[in-house]
Amino acid sequence: MSLTPKREIDLRIGRFQSLLGEHGVDGALIVQPVDLFYFSGTAQNGYLYIPASGVPVLWVKKSFARARDESALENVFPLASVKKLPELITSGGGAPAVMGLEMDVLPAGTYLFYAKMFSGTKLVDISGLVKQVRQVKSKYEMEHLRVSGRKMTEVYHEIPGIIRAGITEVELAAKIEERARKAGHIGYMSMRAFGNTVFFGQLMSGWAAAVPSSFDGPAGGQGLHPIFPQGCSFKTIETGEPILVDYVGLWGGYITDRSRIYTIDYLSDKLIRAFNTSLEIQEAVIRRTEPGVNGSDLYEMALKIADKAGLGDHFMGSGSDRVKFIGHGVGLELDEFPVLAKGVDIKLEPGMVFALEPKFVFPGEGLVGIENTFILTEKGVEKVTDSPDELVIL
Fold it and tell me: Which residues does the chain have with pLDDT short of 70?
């Protein structure tokens, strides 16, 4: 099992501590599992206190033995009761006057419990600072992302050989997911947004891919039941319809996202033209992407290309179900920063990693488009989901 090295943990904590100091926060209590893993190297049930200066401390409820083995932190201790935290934090360096919490993901009941427990401390939201640190990947993280991309490319190489007319979406999904799991795909997909979940990714065909859902993306899907109204269904895959395979690679904890379009025998000229427009948008956006560019400008450029092609009404969804972004950050979670979206002004930096997904949705007919994951470096943009982008006609 791969463990996060101490030098990597130290780098992350050092960057975060600098931000805490700049914003007048004395320390932060990290409890969300993904953030906890990012800063400590373990996702066991624990509480990580990171002071603005000084040595972090991790207290663990369960499993302490695993956390001690997995984390490179020097101070890892068992925790008998959460109510001991104020006393423990104070004894380690004094009571913080201002303490940060991950308020974007912290349940209201938990926040109220902390507010009562830390009654003499001002509690502030440091979730933006956490996202700011995590959006720029280190060399260590970039290598894990490359591995994730390569591993899922191997799975995608097998997909054309298992698609056939008459198979259901869920049967095809199971065949692909089986191959990914056997290759070591973790399977569980972390998302930060409240109420958003995804299982492996999305596999849909024909009209079913154009069925909208609550998921914050251009694709929806019929799904198998209203309790999870998205993704694959029992619909049979037919000839002449677009088959969307939008699957996430997940090895070493790191996510890469890609979409490919397949069809059996043929595809209509309209859908082929829309697909080619998605490739044109991808090429134009990547050609323009460099350090310092504004993410919202990339979205506007993509929208202009779609409008010029006469496809604006179908870009990134249809009708009121259209989404106003073309890309999203990936890493330990599927919905990280940066977001390439309307009105979201963010200057891109080397080390940022994003999935670019220009897609077109046609109700009653299907979805076509492309998605790839890219790393922005000082020298340019590196594609880490390296399987052919072209429409695959079987």
Answer: 1
